[in-house]
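Re: weekly structure request thread

Next one in the queue (179 aa):
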Amino acid sequence: MNRYYAILSKRAHALGSNNEPGRKALYAQVRAQLDKMIDAADPPMSTYQRLMQMQALETAIADVEAEVRRTNAAAEEKRAAAARRAQEQREQAAKGDPSATGGDTGHAQTAGSSTPMPPRQGRKVEEILEDDPDAQLSPGLIIVIIGSLFLLMLIGVVIALDPSSFDLLGQNPATPDQQ
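Done, posted below.
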């Protein structure tokens, strides 16, 4: 992230994710301040430097807005999930299901702990490797890769020391007086 992002992110989050007019005013104020700083620079900035500074600011603004959108989407999803759970519990309670009032939140409970564990997400690395045995590198393949890299490095050293010794296309034939 660029240097403007940290400042803008902190100030935008202080305004709140639902305060779009406030964020727009903040961005306009920061643009004006940057423009004044660029104009007051001594020695004056070139057009290229000026454009790079303004582009860095616009990139930071776009990143902050994307973060705000992600935060709002996550909060909306949480609200929707909570509403769905509440609706399901009401429906189960209406059917007379005793577990509906027990507060089953869908979280795993560890033995001897009152803190619910979050539901498991994704798969373990071992499970992925079991599904695709070709994804594992054998020791022989690792040795071949390392050997190839060593050979390429050796060729590079030879070329660096004497480029004419490795003329593949024969475009620089050595003349008898050069030898």
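The helical segments are 3-15, 20-39, 47-95, 99-102, 125-131, 139-161. The radius of gyration is 31 Å.
Next request, please.
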